[in-house]
Amino acid sequence: REKDESVAANMRQYGMSSYYLDVVVSDFSYPLWRADLRIDAIVTDPPYGIREATERIGTMKINPVIEEHQATSHIPSKIVYGLNQIYKDLLCFSAKHLRLQGRLVCWYPLFRDQYVEDQLPAHSCLELIANSEQVLSNYTSRRLLTYKKVKEPEATDESVIMNLVDFREKYFALREETRKEKRTRKAAERAKRREEWERSNKEVTER
């Protein structure tokens, strides 16, 4: 990144430098905040696995052991952090830590031809109050969703996340299919031009 590409630079651009405190780098799947933390608003663009990795700390091993001599240089292993789980964690975190009437604002990726409002992330403590679309391509878009916290969570409250597991896989499959279509179209165009050129040469020769 360039020097002017940062959270601090963005806040300077909008004249909000006085609100800037610092940046924390952590694993969102392992919350580090106190249970009584309360936030007025959360604005976020979760990773979709397209330009950035969707990973979290974890291992597939059962009862992993780190030897004492490895502790100082140990780098935690990572596993896939699926979109479903990312949004579930985000909504649960928001329901827990937002103040009443606080806001969660987040982007949500989807395929345009499959969009129905019922598929959007939902939580019994959060009310969806705004929903707008940003078109990304002929096939994909992302929705800017704004939720308002309407009640404190209880044991029975939960989030509902529709199936986003295949978004990344389908995105890249669609891109590959589009590339093949372009290659096929260009090959057909070249063949047509070659045929026209040969026909033109033949007509000139016959004259």
Automatic annotation (TrEMBL):
- Gene Ontology MF annotations: methyltransferase activity; nucleic acid binding
InterPro entries documented for this protein? DNA_methylase_N6_adenine_CS (IPR002052), SAM-dependent_MTases_sf (IPR029063)
Does the keyword Transferase belong to this entry?
yes
Q: Where is this region: Disordered?
A: 178-207
One GO cellular component term of this record is: cytoplasm
Keyword annotations: Methyltransferase, Transferase
Any GO BP: methylation
Protein name (Swiss-Prot/TrEMBL): tRNA (Guanine(10)-N2)-methyltransferase homolog
Tell me the organism.
Answer: Temnothorax curvispinosus
